[in-house]
Amino acid sequence: DDGRVESRSTEPGLSWGVETPLPPGDWAEVDFDDRGWWRVVGPDDDRRRGQDRRDVGQVFLRLRFEVDEPEAVRGLLLSMTFRGGAAVYLNGREVARSHLPDGPLTAKTLAKDYPEAAFAQVERGDEAAAEAREAVRQRRMDGVDLPASALRHGVNVLAVRLHRAPYPGEALERGSGLDVGWPTVGLLGLQLFADPAGSVRPNTARSHPPGVRAWTAETIEDVGTGQRWGDPVEGIRPIRLVAPRGATVSGQAVVSSDSKVSGVRARITGLPDDIGARIRYPATTTAEAPFEAPRFDVLLDEPATDGRVQPVWLTLTIPPDAEPGRHTATLEVEADGLASPAQVPVELKVHPWRCPEPRRWSSFVSLNHSPHAVAWHYGVEMWSGRHIELLRPSLELMGKLGNDVVFIDVIHPTFFANEHGIIVFRRDGDGHEPDFRFFDRFLDAYGEHVGRPRRIILSVWEPHLADDPQMAHRDRSPGAWRRRLDYLPDEAPGTVTLTRIGDDGTLEHFAHPMHGSEGSAPLWRATLEGVRRRVLERGWDERSILLGMAHDVLPDERTVEFFHQIAPFARWAIFTHGRGHPPIRDGKINIRGIEVGLQEYPYGQIGRRTRGPGLGWVSDTIHGGWVDDPYDALTLWCGRNHLRRYSPLEHFRNYGDTMVAGRSAGFARLGIDLWPVRRPGDDLEAPPSRPVHGVGGYSRLYRDNPRSIAMPGPEGAVPTTRFEMLRESLQEAEARIFIERILMDEDKTQRIDPQLIERFEQLSQHRRAYRLSGGYRTLWLGPAWMDRTDALFDLAGHFEAALREEQP
């Protein structure tokens, strides 16, 4: 009404005007439970970026410190640099205010206006002008006296509430010449001084306090790295866990010391008998791994650290028929140097909604797995009994994430840099015939530990097989693509390299006529028909059989027509940027005559805005609510630019639910066990360091995507904290999809209380707003994320009960 403009985002994909809940009224009190608030450690903590957005309205902060003798403190002085307006509280009592109006503060309270100079445009390179403008944007409270009488013995809390200042009304006018690309709220610096010095003990020490201590942390916290020693003035807090029936959930306690941690052991007591519990001890590496993680990652059954920190990871498995409700237990942690075992309370809330088992998840997951990497790492013969034993842990982990795609190497090499095919061949007179012994062993093991694959991709083509100028990005002469790839075999022109069992029983390469060339059809027809027969014998769908991999570089018409003639049931898998490709039509994707059964894109869809028909904001990620893609036209995103190998655990905890969305049936290009290996012919004295994929100039496990979310253990792959966080994220996606399926069905929607629908719409807005709190390319969960997870599982139970016409 007064012509001022409230701060709203104008960046594509970010939330406009979403009001996330304010913290409870007692948020500034000492005893307020701030579990779930973001813990910011130092000025360079990535989570500080959450306040660097134009659509942030308020920022709330809490800082703890200890006082042994309050009566001995003669004075407290506060200095603070900030943007917007600030109110300061000491143990719940407001003690200072700056650039804010008098009276109660609400969500709509705006800080005092900035002068026009704060919005002035500055010429590029004019550092003096930029510094002068920044000085205007910064506001200060210098040497503010705080009442020492408000202090108490023990833990005290200094709390700060920051409010945004408005942008001038003309800022949104075209050609206004005003710079509004900066947030008008945020904390830039804070110092608290006590007289006499040392009478107040802060929780910001850069070294561990003396002795051994036990404490708790959220599973998404990267403990033990940098200065993360836990809050030294905070005692043991309960581990809070929420989960639906049929799910798995983890919590974390930590033992740390100023010297060395040893003798760590833990056990859980008080849980219901039907809830499974497993205690593991995160480490940075294993005795078998040729690499080390930059943080605690691999989950071991025995402590392996000789450092100053040892996390304790508690994982609970809730049976599908568990009794809903609240359960309490105790995690007892002992360590050398602790006077007595630490008693860590565990609070578990089991929701009535039942999470499906991974084999029945709606989300479509395509994990990359390499039998070659496992064989090379452990130095065993490919497809031997020992090799199959070592493969099983990888397959079991894939099964726990509901994997849906299995890759079968046929030609050599593929983007997995395989040495040999899984389908091999043997001599038959003057020709060859397929030999499925390894294929059968692998599919038997896969079916046992993972389940029915929804896609079986036979690697029969790679871009290096085409001799077409379109594939040379810079050098457009024929064969340029082939010359760029230094790992390719010396193939004779017009041939493709396959693997056969030699006369002495060893595997060797041989050249076979190129697809569509004279004499090529009999072998390929027998191969594809053999695969089809084996798939049908297992009770699987022949339409799951795909040919791979097409790329931005597509197979030529001769290759496509050749395979269509000999195997009309087989479609193609494609990994492409999709530039100019047609969309799904009539339940099919057809690109230049190539019928596609699985299409992968390198980018993600984080930040897209969504609306459902007549339902407002249906979801934080998807376009109009979850709709099952036709079985013939699956589309996956690969999360390029969003997830790195060792992205914050918070990103893994958010990744599955974000990427599994309406326009994306799931995600792809995430590795389980593509470890650095020593390949045949490598120097045996050198440490294994070559990735099993992407040798040479060609890699389609895209750029920095995680190559392995498991580490090699003594008997195969062992899970990591990243694996567990991804599993929890997919469970959360299933709850969201369950609700959205109902909302996309008009008949079912009529049976749902409108208030439940409204609650879900609001929750979706909040989840999305926090998800983007670090910017378009981040996957933050946001503060108090477990409250939103709790609310989502609760809503899923209410929706399920409404369809059964009973209350949860």
List key phrases describing it.
808 residues; alpha+beta; nine-stranded mixed sheet; five-stranded antiparallel sheet; 12 helices; 27% strand; globular; disordered N terminus
Q: Count up the helices.
A: 12
Shape: globular
- How far apart the termini lie comes to 46 Å
Helix fraction by DSSP (H/I, runs of at least 4): 10-25%
Main beta sheet: 9 strands, mixed
**Uncertain residue segments:** 1-16, 469-488, 607-623, 694-700
- How large is the share of residues in beta strands? 25-35%
Quick check: average pLDDT?
A: 85
Rg estimate, integer Å: 30 Å
Please provide the count of β strands.
Answer: 34
Coarse structural class: alpha+beta
Description:
With 808 residues, the chain is of the alpha+beta class. It is 19% helix and 27% strand. It has twelve helices and 34 strands. The strands form nine sheets. Strands 18, 19, 22, 25, 26, 27, 28, 29 and 30 form a nine-stranded mixed β-sheet that branches. Strands 4-3-6-1-8 form a five-stranded antiparallel β-sheet, with no helix packed on it. β20 and β21 form a beta hairpin. The protein is globular and about 100 Å long. The model is unreliable at 1-16, 469-488, 607-623 and 694-700 (pLDDT under 50).
